[in-house]
Design brief:
By secondary structure, this protein is of the alpha+beta class. About 60% of the residues lie in helices and about 15% in strands. Strands 1, 2, 3, 4, 5, 6 and 7 form a seven-stranded antiparallel β-sheet that branches. Helix 1 runs parallel beside helix 5 and helix 3 runs parallel beside helix 10. The radius of gyration is 27 Å and the shape is elongated. The two termini are about 25 Å apart. About 30% of the residues are buried.
Length: about 375
């Protein structure tokens, strides 16, 4: 069995690697074409072709993470179909490679793909994507979220506060920060406007060039009166502001949630729930991060029945084409279910798991019909 596993694993890894390189080359070409246009638009700010190539290279881990299930499916289908066409798989079957042993062999290989996908998607891709965005923002503009920026809320013992971050600078500092503090009655007690802020600890920000306006405790009818007595305004060069809003939370609010680490998404979801904010979108992305690596297992099981088909000369390309279509349909279904679950308020874990569950049922039915029954 060691020889058989070495043969199958070697063939599948080579095929998956070749398919992955092909897809990555295609995506790199598209990204580079788009970035060359950015070089022309931002040449005055120092954005050169070297920066564009670096930015495109940093996007590779993200593409690798997204393409991994498709590449595993296409590569495994190609190997299984080729072994069947050349009658090598028939020889392996007569040597003792039964259906269940073949399934176990491919599932072990699928576990390796699961680990690889998780490591790239949870560690390599978030770091590379964040570095790419900060690199590009250094020359083409800061990272923003529309015209209003990102809003975060934090509950406190004496009330709550709403934080608005306008921009994320390339050095990791925050720009155009506004902080609104409310008392227990929901009345505004102070407003702070800072030109910039940086994280100095896990539980504090250092605000710079701060204008702080304090409103005295009074009746609701007078709380927002500009002429209310006792309203004070002070200007400070720096201000230490304790809070529990971490850098990862701000990055999650400003950057794409699907590119964040699983633990960062979980902490941000807890923060939103503790402050009575909707976390449906981020919960779906969290569960997608949990279930997406498991797609490698589904894909290898879906490819196994191709080893038991009878091929004519030249028909292998047709089955590989069907594998490409199946991989693309899985990618599309994964995205469509995410949007539908967000709109229809489905359970986040079910929304993220449904595509994998559907393909798992299809692959097991195909395995049972083509392999066990026939």
């Amino acid at each position: 069995m060691k020889t058989i596993r070495r043969l199958i694993y070697g063939e599948v890894l080579q095929a998956v690697g070749f398919v992955t390189l092909g897809f990555l080359a295609l995506f790199l070409f598209f990204d580079l074409v788009e970035e060359i246009q950015s070089v022309g638009r931002h040449a005055a700010t120092g954005y050169t072709l070297v920066h564009a190539l670096t930015y495109v290279a940093l996007l590779v881990p993200g593409h690798f993470y997204e393409l991994m299930p498709i590449a595993v499916l296409i590569g495994t289908i190609f190997v299984m179909a080729r072994l069947a066409q050349s009658s090598e798989y028939t020889i392996l079957r007569t040597s003792g490679l039964g259906p269940w042993r073949a399934l176990k062999t491919l599932l072990l290989l699928g576990c390796a793909f699961v680990v690889l996908t998780f490591v790239v998607g949870d560690y390599v891709s978030p770091l590379a994507d964040r570095t790419a965005q900060l690199l590009k923002s250094r020359y083409t503009g800061r990272i923003t979220l529309g015209q209003t920026g990102a809003w975060l809320k934090e509950s406190r013992a004496g009330g709550q506060c709403a934080v608005n971050v306008g921009e994320l600078s390339s050095d990791g500092s925050l720009k155009a920060v506004r902080i609104f503090e409310f008392d227990r009655r929901g009345l505004i007690s102070s407003v702070m406007q800072a030109q910039s802020a940086k994280f100095i600890q896990h539980d504090a920000w250092e605000l710079r060039q701060v204008v702080r306006t304090e409103f005295p405790a009074q009746d609701a009818a007078k709380a927002y009166s500009a002429a209310a007595a006792g309203v004070t305004r002070v200007t400070l060069q720096t201000l230490y502001w304790p809070n529990k809003i971490s850098a990862e939370m701000v990055s999650t609010a400003l950057l794409k949630p699907e590119r964040m680490r699983t633990i960062d998404l979980f902490q941000y979801i807890q923060h939103l729930q503790n402050n009575a904010q909707s976390a449906q979108r981020y919960e779906i992305e969290f569960w997608k991060k949990v279930f997406y690596p498991l797609s490698g297992l589904v894909m290898v099981v879906l490819a196994l029945p191709f080893a038991y088909l009878h091929f004519r000369s030249g028909s292998i390309a047709t089955y590989v084409f069907f594998g490409v279509m199946a991989g693309i349909s899985f990618f599309l279904m994964n995205n469509v279910f995410g949007y539908m679950g967000d709109l229809q308020k489905w359970r986040p874990w079910l929304t993220a798991a449904l595509p994998g569950m559907i393909y798992s049922v299809v692959s097991l039915l195909a395995f049972g019909w083509l392999v066990l029954k026939r």
